[in-house]
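Appendix C: a fully annotated inverse folding record. The material below is reproduced so that readers can follow the format used throughout the book. The structure is listed first as C-alpha coordinates, followed by the designed sequence.
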Protein backbone atom coordinates (compact mmCIF):
# COMPACT_ATOMS: atom_id res chain seq x y z
CA UNK A 1 0.00 0.00 0.00
CA UNK A 2 1.10 3.54 -0.72
CA UNK A 3 2.26 4.83 2.70
CA UNK A 4 0.54 8.16 1.96
CA UNK A 5 -2.77 6.60 0.97
CA UNK A 6 -5.41 7.95 3.31
CA UNK A 7 -6.95 4.81 4.79
CA UNK A 8 -8.02 5.94 8.24
CA UNK A 9 -9.43 3.84 11.07
CA UNK A 10 -11.49 5.90 13.51
CA UNK A 11 -10.81 3.97 16.69
CA UNK A 12 -11.01 4.01 20.45
CA UNK A 13 -11.50 1.07 22.79
CA UNK A 14 -13.87 3.12 24.92
CA UNK A 15 -17.46 3.35 23.79
CA UNK A 16 -19.56 6.49 23.68
CA UNK A 17 -16.79 8.78 22.44
CA UNK A 18 -18.50 9.77 19.16
CA UNK A 19 -16.51 7.45 16.89
CA UNK A 20 -19.40 6.86 14.51
CA UNK A 21 -20.54 10.48 14.60
CA UNK A 22 -17.00 11.61 13.79
CA UNK A 23 -16.48 9.02 11.04
CA UNK A 24 -19.82 9.75 9.36
CA UNK A 25 -19.59 13.55 9.47
CA UNK A 26 -15.95 13.60 8.43
CA UNK A 27 -16.67 11.31 5.47
CA UNK A 28 -19.73 13.32 4.40
CA UNK A 29 -17.88 16.66 4.67
CA UNK A 30 -14.83 15.47 2.74
CA UNK A 31 -17.05 14.03 0.01
CA UNK A 32 -19.18 17.18 -0.29
CA UNK A 33 -16.37 19.73 -0.02
CA UNK A 34 -16.88 23.38 0.92
CA UNK A 35 -15.58 26.05 -1.45
CA UNK A 36 -15.63 28.90 1.09
CA UNK A 37 -13.61 26.81 3.53
CA UNK A 38 -11.09 25.81 0.90
CA UNK A 39 -12.15 22.18 1.12
CA UNK A 40 -12.35 20.51 -2.33
CA UNK A 41 -14.70 17.56 -2.86
CA UNK A 42 -13.10 14.12 -2.62
CA UNK A 43 -14.12 10.57 -3.41
CA UNK A 44 -14.72 8.82 -0.09
CA UNK A 45 -15.44 5.26 1.01
CA UNK A 46 -16.96 4.86 4.49
CA UNK A 47 -16.71 1.36 5.98
CA UNK A 48 -18.77 0.30 8.98
CA UNK A 49 -17.07 -2.44 11.03
CA UNK A 50 -19.28 -1.95 14.08
CA UNK A 51 -22.04 -4.61 14.41
CA UNK A 52 -24.43 -1.91 15.63
CA UNK A 53 -24.55 -0.69 12.02
CA UNK A 54 -25.04 2.94 12.97
CA UNK A 55 -23.34 4.30 9.85
CA UNK A 56 -26.26 3.08 7.77
CA UNK A 57 -28.73 4.54 10.26
CA UNK A 58 -26.93 7.88 10.01
CA UNK A 59 -27.93 8.03 6.34
CA UNK A 60 -31.51 6.88 6.89
CA UNK A 61 -30.89 3.38 5.50
CA UNK A 62 -33.12 0.55 6.70
CA UNK A 63 -30.64 -2.21 7.50
CA UNK A 64 -33.16 -4.97 6.88
CA UNK A 65 -33.18 -4.00 3.20
CA UNK A 66 -29.39 -4.16 2.81
CA UNK A 67 -28.34 -7.25 0.85
CA UNK A 68 -24.55 -7.28 1.26
CA UNK A 69 -22.67 -6.11 4.34
CA UNK A 70 -19.21 -6.11 5.89
CA UNK A 71 -20.08 -9.53 7.33
CA UNK A 72 -20.34 -11.05 3.84
CA UNK A 73 -17.05 -9.41 2.92
CA UNK A 74 -15.08 -10.69 5.91
CA UNK A 75 -16.46 -14.22 5.87
CA UNK A 76 -15.93 -14.78 2.15
CA UNK A 77 -13.74 -17.86 1.67
CA UNK A 78 -13.79 -18.05 -2.13
CA UNK A 79 -10.39 -16.38 -2.46
CA UNK A 80 -11.48 -14.40 -5.51
CA UNK A 81 -12.05 -10.72 -6.21
CA UNK A 82 -15.49 -9.60 -5.09
CA UNK A 83 -17.72 -7.18 -7.06
CA UNK A 84 -17.53 -4.57 -4.29
CA UNK A 85 -18.49 -1.48 -6.28
CA UNK A 86 -21.52 -3.16 -7.85
CA UNK A 87 -22.90 -5.40 -5.10
CA UNK A 88 -21.46 -4.45 -1.70
CA UNK A 89 -21.22 -0.66 -1.61
CA UNK A 90 -24.16 1.72 -1.33
CA UNK A 91 -23.53 4.55 -3.78
CA UNK A 92 -24.26 8.29 -3.68
CA UNK A 93 -27.65 8.09 -5.40
CA UNK A 94 -28.99 5.53 -2.93
CA UNK A 95 -27.56 7.43 0.03
CA UNK A 96 -29.24 10.61 -1.16
CA UNK A 97 -32.58 8.84 -1.66
CA UNK A 98 -32.37 7.24 1.80
CA UNK A 99 -31.61 10.55 3.53
CA UNK A 100 -34.46 12.36 1.80
CA UNK A 101 -36.94 9.55 2.47
CA UNK A 102 -35.96 9.42 6.15
CA UNK A 103 -36.35 13.19 6.46
CA UNK A 104 -39.84 13.06 4.95
CA UNK A 105 -40.87 10.30 7.36
CA UNK A 106 -39.87 12.49 10.31
CA UNK A 107 -41.28 15.71 8.89
CA UNK A 108 -44.82 15.63 7.54
CA UNK A 109 -44.68 19.13 6.07
CA UNK A 110 -42.27 20.72 3.65
CA UNK A 111 -39.54 19.42 1.43
CA UNK A 112 -36.17 17.97 2.46
CA UNK A 113 -33.33 20.53 2.60
CA UNK A 114 -31.47 20.91 -0.67
CA UNK A 115 -28.28 19.97 1.21
CA UNK A 116 -29.48 16.38 1.71
CA UNK A 117 -27.52 15.06 -1.23
CA UNK A 118 -24.13 13.46 -1.73
CA UNK A 119 -22.20 12.78 -4.91
CA UNK A 120 -18.83 11.32 -3.96
CA UNK A 121 -19.57 9.04 -1.02
CA UNK A 122 -19.88 5.25 -0.91
CA UNK A 123 -20.79 3.15 2.14
CA UNK A 124 -20.03 -0.46 3.07
CA UNK A 125 -22.71 -1.07 5.72
CA UNK A 126 -22.87 -3.56 8.56
CA UNK A 127 -25.55 -5.08 10.75
CA UNK A 128 -25.86 -7.28 13.83
CA UNK A 129 -24.69 -10.36 11.89
CA UNK A 130 -21.19 -8.88 11.97
CA UNK A 131 -21.02 -9.68 15.69
CA UNK A 132 -20.72 -13.36 14.75
CA UNK A 133 -17.80 -12.77 12.38
CA UNK A 134 -15.21 -12.80 15.16
CA UNK A 135 -16.23 -16.33 16.19
CA UNK A 136 -16.47 -17.57 12.60
CA UNK A 137 -13.07 -16.15 11.66
CA UNK A 138 -11.25 -17.21 14.82
CA UNK A 139 -9.94 -20.46 13.30
CA UNK A 140 -9.47 -19.29 9.72
CA UNK A 141 -6.28 -18.40 7.88
CA UNK A 142 -5.66 -14.70 7.34
CA UNK A 143 -8.35 -13.68 9.80
CA UNK A 144 -6.59 -10.41 10.74
CA UNK A 145 -6.19 -9.22 7.13
CA UNK A 146 -9.54 -10.14 5.54
CA UNK A 147 -10.59 -6.49 5.12
CA UNK A 148 -7.23 -5.41 3.70
CA UNK A 149 -7.26 -8.17 1.09
CA UNK A 150 -10.88 -7.51 0.09
CA UNK A 151 -10.28 -3.76 -0.36
CA UNK A 152 -7.08 -4.13 -2.38
CA UNK A 153 -8.77 -4.09 -5.85
CA UNK A 154 -10.67 -0.83 -5.20
CA UNK A 155 -8.44 1.06 -2.77
CA UNK A 156 -7.06 3.35 -5.49
CA UNK A 157 -10.56 4.36 -6.58
CA UNK A 158 -10.90 6.63 -3.55
CA UNK A 159 -9.13 9.64 -2.06
CA UNK A 160 -10.12 8.64 1.47
CA UNK A 161 -11.19 5.37 3.05
CA UNK A 162 -12.62 5.90 6.54
CA UNK A 163 -13.28 2.87 8.75
CA UNK A 164 -15.61 3.05 11.74
CA UNK A 165 -14.65 0.49 14.40
CA UNK A 166 -16.36 -1.14 17.40
CA UNK A 167 -15.42 -0.13 20.97
CA UNK A 168 -13.06 -3.05 21.60
CA UNK A 169 -9.82 -4.54 20.32
CA UNK A 170 -11.37 -7.68 18.92
CA UNK A 171 -10.86 -9.19 15.50
CA UNK A 172 -13.00 -6.54 13.80
CA UNK A 173 -10.89 -3.66 15.11
CA UNK A 174 -7.71 -5.58 14.30
CA UNK A 175 -8.96 -5.98 10.70
CA UNK A 176 -9.54 -2.22 10.53
CA UNK A 177 -6.09 -1.41 11.93
CA UNK A 178 -4.49 -3.95 9.58
CA UNK A 179 -6.17 -2.40 6.54
CA UNK A 180 -5.46 1.20 7.58
CA UNK A 181 -2.23 3.13 7.59
CA UNK A 182 -3.56 5.91 9.81
CA UNK A 183 -5.54 6.02 13.05
CA UNK A 184 -7.79 8.89 14.07
CA UNK A 185 -8.75 8.84 17.74
CA UNK A 186 -11.86 10.58 19.09
CA UNK A 187 -11.42 11.12 22.84
CA UNK A 188 -14.38 12.03 24.99
CA UNK A 189 -13.54 14.84 27.41
CA UNK A 190 -14.26 12.75 30.52
CA UNK A 191 -12.00 11.11 33.09
CA UNK A 192 -12.41 7.46 32.04
CA UNK A 193 -11.36 8.41 28.52
CA UNK A 194 -7.78 8.98 29.67
CA UNK A 195 -7.46 5.30 30.59
CA UNK A 196 -9.08 4.20 27.33
CA UNK A 197 -6.76 6.49 25.38
CA UNK A 198 -3.71 4.95 27.04
CA UNK A 199 -4.96 1.44 26.27
CA UNK A 200 -5.51 2.33 22.62
CA UNK A 201 -1.96 3.69 22.28
CA UNK A 202 -0.62 0.39 23.61
CA UNK A 203 -2.85 -1.55 21.21
CA UNK A 204 -1.63 0.50 18.23
CA UNK A 205 1.98 -0.25 19.20
CA UNK A 206 1.15 -3.97 19.34
CA UNK A 207 -0.46 -3.86 15.88
CA UNK A 208 2.56 -1.95 14.54
CA UNK A 209 4.99 -4.58 15.83
CA UNK A 210 3.12 -7.69 14.80
CA UNK A 211 0.75 -6.99 11.92
CA UNK A 212 0.98 -3.56 10.26
CA UNK A 213 4.25 -1.64 10.39
CA UNK A 214 2.76 1.17 8.28
CA UNK A 215 0.18 2.08 10.92
CA UNK A 216 0.58 5.58 12.39
CA UNK A 217 -1.43 8.02 14.49
CA UNK A 218 -2.94 10.67 12.24
CA UNK A 219 -4.64 12.74 14.87
CA UNK A 220 -6.61 12.96 18.09
CA UNK A 221 -9.84 14.94 18.29
CA UNK A 222 -11.54 15.88 21.55
CA UNK A 223 -15.29 15.20 21.50
CA UNK A 224 -18.23 15.99 23.80
CA UNK A 225 -16.28 18.88 25.26
CA UNK A 226 -17.95 21.10 27.87
CA UNK A 227 -15.84 24.24 28.19
CA UNK A 228 -17.61 25.12 31.46
CA UNK A 229 -16.42 21.92 33.12
CA UNK A 230 -13.09 21.88 34.96
CA UNK A 231 -12.84 18.12 34.37
CA UNK A 232 -13.41 18.54 30.64
CA UNK A 233 -10.64 21.13 30.42
CA UNK A 234 -8.33 18.92 32.48
CA UNK A 235 -8.83 15.92 30.17
CA UNK A 236 -8.15 18.08 27.10
CA UNK A 237 -4.95 19.40 28.72
CA UNK A 238 -3.75 15.90 29.61
CA UNK A 239 -4.28 14.59 26.09
CA UNK A 240 -2.49 17.65 24.67
CA UNK A 241 0.50 16.98 26.94
CA UNK A 242 0.70 13.28 26.05
CA UNK A 243 0.50 13.69 22.27
CA UNK A 244 0.88 17.43 21.47
CA UNK A 245 1.72 17.26 17.77
CA UNK A 246 -1.25 15.07 16.92
CA UNK A 247 -4.09 16.86 18.69
CA UNK A 248 -6.49 18.69 16.38
CA UNK A 249 -7.08 22.30 17.33
CA UNK A 250 -10.75 21.77 16.46
CA UNK A 251 -12.77 20.17 19.24
CA UNK A 252 -16.38 19.00 19.16
CA UNK A 253 -18.68 20.21 21.88
CA UNK A 254 -21.47 18.21 23.50
CA UNK A 255 -24.39 19.49 21.41
CA UNK A 256 -27.93 18.18 21.26
CA UNK A 257 -28.33 18.86 17.54
CA UNK A 258 -25.38 16.61 16.66
CA UNK A 259 -26.96 13.74 18.61
CA UNK A 260 -30.39 14.37 17.08
CA UNK A 261 -29.22 14.44 13.45
CA UNK A 262 -29.38 10.63 12.90
CA UNK A 263 -33.06 10.76 13.89
CA UNK A 264 -33.62 12.80 10.72
CA UNK A 265 -31.56 10.30 8.72
CA UNK A 266 -28.57 12.45 7.80
CA UNK A 267 -25.19 13.57 9.21
CA UNK A 268 -25.33 17.00 10.80
CA UNK A 269 -22.93 18.44 8.17
CA UNK A 270 -25.54 17.71 5.49
CA UNK A 271 -28.66 18.33 7.54
CA UNK A 272 -27.73 21.70 9.07
CA UNK A 273 -26.01 24.70 7.52
CA UNK A 274 -22.83 25.55 9.44
CA UNK A 275 -23.47 28.49 11.77
CA UNK A 276 -21.80 29.81 14.90
CA UNK A 277 -24.87 29.15 17.02
CA UNK A 278 -28.15 27.27 17.00
CA UNK A 279 -28.78 24.07 15.06
CA UNK A 280 -25.77 24.62 12.81
CA UNK A 281 -23.15 24.87 15.56
CA UNK A 282 -22.29 21.18 15.48
CA UNK A 283 -22.25 21.23 11.69
CA UNK A 284 -19.76 24.11 11.75
CA UNK A 285 -17.47 22.26 14.16
CA UNK A 286 -17.37 19.13 11.99
CA UNK A 287 -16.85 21.20 8.84
CA UNK A 288 -13.97 22.95 10.60
CA UNK A 289 -12.54 19.59 11.63
CA UNK A 290 -12.78 18.37 8.01
CA UNK A 291 -10.93 21.48 6.82
CA UNK A 292 -8.18 20.97 9.39
CA UNK A 293 -8.03 17.29 8.43
CA UNK A 294 -7.64 18.20 4.74
CA UNK A 295 -4.95 20.78 5.46
CA UNK A 296 -3.00 18.30 7.55
CA UNK A 297 -3.11 15.82 4.66
CA UNK A 298 -1.94 18.48 2.21
CA UNK A 299 0.91 19.59 4.49
CA UNK A 300 2.08 15.99 4.82
CA UNK A 301 1.98 15.43 1.07
CA UNK A 302 3.91 18.62 0.37
CA UNK A 303 6.52 17.69 2.96
CA UNK A 304 7.21 14.36 1.27
CA UNK A 305 6.72 15.53 -2.32
CA UNK A 306 3.56 13.54 -2.93
CA UNK A 307 1.52 14.85 -5.85
CA UNK A 308 -1.68 12.91 -6.22
CA UNK A 309 -4.66 14.69 -7.84
CA UNK A 310 -8.06 13.89 -6.37
CA UNK A 311 -10.15 11.17 -7.95
CA UNK A 312 -12.99 13.68 -8.39
CA UNK A 313 -10.83 15.97 -10.54
CA UNK A 314 -9.41 13.03 -12.51
CA UNK A 315 -12.90 11.72 -13.26
CA UNK A 316 -14.07 15.22 -14.23
CA UNK A 317 -11.18 15.47 -16.69
CA UNK A 318 -12.05 12.06 -18.09
CA UNK A 319 -15.63 13.15 -18.78
CA UNK A 320 -14.54 16.14 -20.85
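Designed amino acids, in order:
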Amino acid sequence: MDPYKMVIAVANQKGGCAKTTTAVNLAAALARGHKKMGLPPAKVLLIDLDPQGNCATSFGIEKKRVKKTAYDLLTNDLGEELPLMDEYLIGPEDLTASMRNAWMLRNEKGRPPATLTTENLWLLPSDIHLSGAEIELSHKIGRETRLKEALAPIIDNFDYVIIDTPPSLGLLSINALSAANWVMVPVQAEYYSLEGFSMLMNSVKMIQRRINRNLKIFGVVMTMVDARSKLSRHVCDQVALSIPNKLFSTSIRRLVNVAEAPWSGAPTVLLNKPTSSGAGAGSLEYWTLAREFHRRVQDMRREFGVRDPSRVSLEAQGRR
